[in-house]
Amino acid sequence: MRRCCFSTLRRPDLALPVSSNPIYYTRHYASHAACYAPLTPEPQSLPEFNSQEEKQSADPLDVACCNFDHLALTTRFDWRLRAPSRLRVDPRKTSPKHRPRRGPKRAQPPHENLQQGNRFYEELQAYQKHFLPLLAAEQAEDEEVLKERLSSWSEERLKQEGYCITGLSAFWLENNHFGRPVASFALGPGITLPEHRFENGTQVLLTRLDPLQEEPERGSIVGTTETQLRVCFQEMFDLDAGQWRLDVGRSSIVFDRMRTAISQLNHDPSRQESQTGTNDSDRQFILQGTHLRDILLRSFIRTQQDSDAQSEPDSQEDVPSASASVTLMDHRGVFKDDVRIQSWATRYSSPDPVVIEGDPILKDLNSTQIRAIAMMIGQRFTLVQGPPGTGKTKTIIEAVRLLKTHFEVFHPILLCTYTNVAVDNLVEGLLTTGLKPLRIGYGGKVKESLRETTLEAKIAAHRLSKDLERVNAQTEMVEKRRKNLLMRISELRSKKMASLAGRLINMETDLIWMDRQLAALKAKGYAIYQEMLKDIVSDADVVCTTCVTSASMALNVCDFPVVFVDEASMSTEPASLIPLMKG
What we know:
four-stranded parallel sheet; six-stranded antiparallel β-barrel; single chain; 583 residues; alpha/beta
């Protein structure tokens, strides 16, 4: 029996469904893996132990994973590895002396543009021709709504409805927001702001008197108190003495991200992955694009000649036919090499599945929901439809639980929906099943009861948060000294005295040294923050956010080969593309 299982692991394409028990496969793999994988450095995170006592008291599965940390990985998401969120020993958190191995530096891949003759070129041109004008029209209508409100409502009404605050004084804060400057706005010391609609994430227009008569500065709210608003801008500008007016604006970021997602259909993530292999310890591309292009573009296979031809409605020319460049690939999903999952998904996709000892027990699900789960994890793309109240959201939650608690897959999972309320409902459901969700989103748009699941809360509680605060404090101190030095240099230059030339040279030398010190501190702070993000994302079973927010820079620390989109019918197709473009 053990020889049969060993053959199964060596040749998953010829496997027979023997068992779905992850404990058996992990232990068996630990004892025989060296027979079928070459010996090369292994860059991914695996369990480590600081002492023999710690190893003896650890979970047997973690010890098994530790024993094959020298094996080569076949892809970025090797099915043989165990989910980091399920490891019971994490020296990075228990040992202050331990420093995790530095992973590859992740960089944006070079931009690609399909050329005529390339696969998917004609289909992508048709796709863009269909959606880009619609996005432009929707954005123009959005701007018209804002202009209509600003032009037809009086200033007094705008203030009463909370869309506008006037008479504000402002100054730049020393702390920035992810490298962008932040300004504080208030009516005066201790003066409470009136009721308003300026919440975290709200886009604002900043002017002196009238946003229709002036060119406004655009920013977003990053913090609010009873007496002040903190607004983040793209760059600093003159905030001299005088009063300012803030209006609730409309953000173009949603439309920009949808256009970017459409553009990323030019990218082939398989090529990006092959250009920076898994054993590359220095550089790794952030995967952009999707392996689902053949499915997403299949509806746009009609050629331009077919579109121009005005044939009869029931003629053969009006029926879309398979394009030469769009042919469906292997329908099996990202887990096709994992015999445990593929065996279970194949058997339970049928109405009358063959049940094998060790199969997971899915409670409170009917046969249709179980079939839907099997199809979701066994196939590349699955659409689950049903009337309200039929348990579609519960089916997604149980699918995530199955992957992370039973099969313990290494692959990161991204769970999206269109609204923040729906994301919060998903997070609550995931928590009730014992999963560890990570909520990505502006703090003001997340339920207070879910605050501990947010990225901000986990960063504040991270073991490296003190280190980051110390580096940020040092950076601020050097920036102050540099600012003062620049002022003194400017004063000396204005005097134009030969006797001060030597002093001026020394000060300029100090300025160069400060610039180098500042660059080093910023690089160190960035590295610490990236390490914190990697730890937090790895420790989560599933990352939950809206479709639009899934393009957040914080999620560039990893790629997401598995994406669930709940309530997809509420989202436009370009918005649903945003999470799908993450590899």
